[in-house]
Amino acid sequence: MRRFLDSLYLAAGGLAAVFMVGVLVAVVMSVATRQLGLHIGGLDAYAGYSMAAAGFLALAHTFKSGEHIRVTLVLSALPSRASMRLDIFALLVACAITANLCWFSAKLALDSYSYNDISTGDDATPLWIPQIAMAVGTLIFFIAVLDETIRRMRGIPEARLTEEAHYE
Question: What is the Cα Rg of the chain in Å?
Answer without folding.
Answer: 20
